[in-house]
Amino acid sequence: MEVRSQHLESIKAEAHKSDFWQAGGALLNDVPQPGQRLKIHGSVMLVQAESREEVLHALRRDIYHTSAVWNLESAQILPVSTKLTPVVPGFK
Predict the structure, then answer these.
(1) Which of 26, 27, 22, 16 is nearest to 84 (CA)?
(2) Element (H, E) at 17
(3) pLDDT tens digits for 64-79?
(4) Is 70:62 a contact under the CB 8 Å cutoff?
(5) pLDDT confidence of residue 28
(6) Is 22 exposed, middle or buried (0-12, 13-18, 19+ CB in 10 A)?
(7) What residues contact 84, with CB distance under 8 A and at least 6 apart?
(8) Residue 70 and residue 55: Cα distance in Å, rounded?
(9) How many C-beta atoms surround the C-beta of residue 6 within 10 A?
(10) pTM assigned to the model
């Protein structure tokens, strides 16, 4: 993906400014093997938002959307009730 580095830089910068982006990454088809390229199936993000519209607004600004990597027509935006707090040091 040509725009991956721009996407990651933008998300990381935004994550330091607010609590909106909580976690994210690639959904994979298989467990990666050493030395093998990742077989990416999609994306998953955990965000803190007040509404579906707030999430869509953020996704529409992302280079993955503006470069047609993401198809927001097929995006699933679901509410989550978390019961665990992060256990990784430094993870917000």
Answers:
(1) 22
(2) helix 4-17
(3) 999 999 999 999 999 9
(4) yes
(5) 94
(6) middle
(7) none
(8) 14
(9) 14
(10) 0.78
